[in-house]
Design brief:
Keywords: Stress response. The chain has a single domain (11-110), classed as Immunoglobulin-like (Sandwich), CATH 2.60.40. The protein is built from no helices and 7 strands. It has strands at 19-23, 27-33, 42-47, 51-58, 79-86, 97-101, 104-110. β1 (19-23) and β2 (27-33) form a beta hairpin. The termini are far apart.
Amino acid sequence: MPTGGKSLFPDFMATTAPVDVKELTSSFIFVVDVPGLRNTDVKVQIENDTILKISGERKRDLDGHDMDIKYVRVERPAGKFMRKFNLPSHVNLDTISAACQDGILTIVVPKVPAPEPHRPRTFDIQVGSMTMGNS
């Protein structure tokens, strides 16, 4: 049994944040479980205009005053987490929003409206010879 609250795994592997990704007609919705975290414990960033990065840290609730604390059982994960998602090219990076409530982080990534398909253009054909515009 681990003592002193030390993890058998490095900090970056100590915890993860499960994510659901939903696609709607107008946006992508990322729903992230971050129980016990405040909005100041989590960062939402865009890297290279193509990657959504969600990171944060869940800290162990140590007093700091009582060095005689010995954990008998450690089941709640603590440590840093990071998730990255490639975004498609048809999203609006300037209007991304995020909200955290009751341990659920919701990130809305709006889509850019799809351009209208190009319609073939039809030209009238004249009868006779064509002048080239050279004098």
